[in-house]
Amino acid sequence: MVDFDQSMKRLRSVSGYLGSAVLNFAGETLYLDEENTGVDIAYSASIFNDAFRSISEASLDVGFSEASFVETKTQDGHVFLINSAGDPSGDNFSKLNIFAIFRDDGNIALGKMIMERTSQALSKAMAEL
Predict the structure, then answer these.
(1) DSSP code of 105?
(2) Which strands form 79-85's sheet, in the order they lie side by side?
(3) Contact predicate 51/45, CB 8 Å
(4) pLDDT score at 94
(5) What are the two backbone dihedrals, phi and then psi, of residue 88, each rounded to the nearest 5 degrees?
(6) Of 22, 56, 64, 126, which sees the most CB atoms within 10 A?
(7) pLDDT per residue over 13-28, tens digit each?
(8) What is the 3-state secondary structure (H, E, C) of 21-57?
(9) Nearest partner of 36 among 122, 107, 115, 100, judged by Cα
(10) Are 87 and 123 in contact (CB under 8 A)?
(11) Rg (CA), the chain
(12) 82, 51 in Cβ contact below 8 A?
């Protein structure tokens, strides 16, 4: 069993963190933290997941590999991050997307690093199930 709450604990402690979700390849929510946001993180994450998949397809169309990370900074200063991991050669069971929202004054660089490491660890744990 994968303990998503424990896996996401470090990300939740980053300065500026507001909320996050972990989604499987199909866009289903496996973990959700929207407690302090007032935002429907599950809905937002699903929208970003669809956009992320479109961007990945476009990346393949130009001859690159699938996208692995997308960052969007909005005019009002919020940063949205999504990261994908998994073994693209196997089934998509271990391919996960992590979606997170940070305030602009938060430690965005640390958040990115933790998201990358967390996504790899979660994908590995899912592949071992």
Answers:
(1) T
(2) 29-33, 17-24, 96-102, 79-85, 69-73
(3) no
(4) 78
(5) -70, -15
(6) 22
(7) 999 999 999 998 788 8
(8) EEEECCCCEEEEECCCCCCCHHHHHHHHHHHHHHHHH
(9) 100
(10) yes
(11) 14
(12) no
Span 112-122, pLDDT tens digits: 999 999 998 89
Q: Considering only CA atoms, which of 111, 105, 88 is closest in space to residue 20?
A: 111
pLDDT of residue 87: 60
pLDDT of residue 39: 86
What would the pLDDT profile of 53-104 be if each residue is shown by its tens digit?
899 899 999 999 888 888 998 877 678 888 877 665 556 667 889 999 998 8
Biggest CA pair distance of the chain:
41
Three-state DSSP state, 79 = strand
Structure tokens at 73: 């900074």
